[in-house]
Amino acid sequence: MKLISGPMATISHPAFRILLEKFGGCDEYFTEMINAGTLLTGGQFEKYYLDPSPVPQKIVWQLTGHDTEHMVEAAKLLNELPGLGIDLNMGCSAPDIYKFGAGISWMIKDRSLTQELVHSVRAVVTLPKRFSVKLRLGDDDFTDDEFFSFCDMLVDEGVELLSLHPRTKKEKLIRPPRYAYCQSLVERYKNKGIKIYLNGNVKDEASYNNAIAQAPGVSGVMISRAAVQKPWIFASLKDLHGKVDMKEIAYDYIADIEKYQPKEFWKTRLQRFFTYYSLNFMFSHYAQTQFLNASSNEDLKNRIDDFFVKCPQEQFIIY
Question: Considering just the CA atoms, what is the radius of gyration of the chain in Å?
């Protein structure tokens, strides 16, 4: 069973992959969404989205956009980079993405437009690159027939892997994912060599086992937010054990953000990471307030030092 780090905006970059690799890493790393239009205009920050460090061989480039022409041209560029493959995002339901005509919009648009996109991108993704799609169940009024016929179209057009987050467009994280749909896809395509990855709500061994019990045939499990909070989660699921120095993690992550991200990105990337990092502590709200209100990276380091002076019992975690 493969373990996969899911795509997360402001998180799925080299500094985060370096952190996960310190605990043995995982099998695949999906990048944060790469906007086709912005990539093609050659913006000053695009090179940072295209850095496959530290494990180029495990990278899956995730592409987003709202029109076929730009998506195809961007896919041509990504096809020349190292990595396992190219993934089309048809699952992001964030309002700014959906209203832009990207993400889950591709599941809701006229089917012929989406089919043209998939067909055209498939034509430029060449071996040994894999061609995949990450998707949801669809809009809130979806039907099984609509969902499965949509997946049939993807497979007929050459998609080799489907990563399913089995919720609808508006369903929040408090709604349990419908993992049975992942297993249904496994059974539907078992004679076609199509791989299915399960995504959603896997955060520890118990939730992992629950997901696999409902979808035993999937080829991989994708974990996102839980891997930010607990970068050792993949090691834990492999039944490995260790001791984590949380202060060391924080310092190293700041250093890698400074090394691999432009200064303009430091604040947002660090705030997003420390939002989840703080959840490990008994005094998580206090930690989160302190870290997210730091005025600079040096101020953040001072606040980290102060936190562990006040809460020394929080510095080490056994997994």
Answer: 20
Contact present, 13 and 29 (Cβ < 8 Å): no
What is the pLDDT confidence band of residue 3, given thresholds at 50, 70 and 90? very high
Contact 201, 166 (CB under 8 A): no
- The DSSP code sequence of 135-168 is E-SBSTT--HHHHHHHHHHHHHTT--EEEE--SB
Q: How far is CA 184 from CA 157, 175, 179, in A?
A: 20, 19, 9
How far CA 36 is from CA of 62, 67, 175, in Å, comes to 10, 9, 31
Residue 237 C-alpha from the chain's centroid: 18
What is the C-alpha to C-alpha distance for residues 198 and 214, in angstroms, rounded to an integer? 10
| Nearest Cα residue to 28 out of 223, 259, 158, 183 | 223
pLDDT 10s digits, 8-47: 999 999 999 999 999 999 999 999 999 999 999 988 899 9
Residues paired with residue 317 on neighbouring β-strands, in sequence order: 244
Token pair, residue 151, equals 């997946």
Partners of residue 29 on adjacent β-strands = 5, 59
pLDDT in tens, 137-186: 999 999 999 999 999 999 999 999 999 999 999 998 778 999 999 999 99
Q: Is the per-residue pLDDT at 75 higher than 90?
A: yes
Residue 59 near residue 79 (C-beta atoms within 8 A): no
